[in-house]
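Subject: Re: docking follow-up (2-acetamido-2-deoxy-beta-D-glucopyranose)

Dear J.,

Thanks for your patience while I sorted out the input files. As discussed at Tuesday's group meeting, I've set up the holo structure prediction with 2-acetamido-2-deoxy-beta-D-glucopyranose included as the bound ligand rather than trying to dock it afterwards. The sequence and the ligand SMILES I used are pasted below, so you can double-check that they match what you have on your end before we go further.
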Amino acid sequence: MADKYSQLNGVRTGYHRDRSCCCCLISIFWKLLVALVVLFGVIIVIFYLIVQPRSFKFYVTKAELTQFDYTNNTLHYNMVLNFTAHNPNKKLGIYYDNVEARTFYEGSRFANVDMITYKNSFRQDKKKSDPMSGVFSGQRILMLDNDQVYEFNKDKNVGVYDIHIKLYFIIRFKLGDSISHKYKPKVKCDLKTALRSSNNATFTFTRILPTKCDVLF
Ligand SMILES: *[C@@H]1O[C@H](CO)[C@@H](O)[C@H](O)[C@H]1NC(C)=O
Ligand SMILES: *[C@@H]1O[C@H](CO)[C@@H](O)[C@H](O)[C@H]1NC(C)=O
Ligand SMILES: *[C@@H]1O[C@H](CO)[C@@H](O)[C@H](O)[C@H]1NC(C)=O
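The structure tokens for the complex came back this morning:
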């Protein structure tokens, strides 16, 4: 009787031990997971505090519009834009691998130009500025509706055109010897550009430059 009882008891305690061990493992696992998550968070916070990563800054420094005519649903344009890209980071360098600029008038795209391709990509060190430029020249069939033609004629009378520029970047960051994966920020610039008429040099461009652009990651 006593034997049977102790046997039963043994089984019961054995069962108890298994269950508590299982609970204990789960509990250890949870504690470990929480610790890892906290550690990861702390590492990220420390990384941000030390590296202080910041986006680059982008400005239009010069805009020269020498032709902007819309006749027979065709836009003839000739425009040179100069930009400055600035890296405000204290620790990070930036590789500019690719920059494509698209220009819009009245919501319609009329030109796109590769300002930088991967072959002439360059590295910008911390706290440095570099120029970039785009030459937009040619013609494009644009179907402006009556309202848009009205806006065009208004702009034409004043001699100042609202031109919207979108730039598509492919960049990488450099920290010490390590290089990040690719980022694809977009940049938007709104420009009021005056036409430089060949016979009136004073009427060059009125817009106060540089114009700061929006950089969106
Ligand atoms: C526009 O089209 C009309 C008719 O096709 C033509 O007579 C005229 O010369 C064209 N204008 C320009 C600036 O191309
Ligand atoms: C503006 O860009 C054009 C075209 O690339 C270049 O020839 C010119 O030197 C640039 N001007 C300035 C002031 O950077
Ligand atoms: C140039 O254009 C401006 C604005 O239309 C005008 O006030 C000025 O008299 C012109 N200057 C010359 C030399 O034609």
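A couple of observations from a first look. Residues 75 and 140 are 5 Å apart (CA to CA). The two ends are 77 Å apart (CA to CA).

Let me know if you'd like me to rerun anything.

Best regards,
T.
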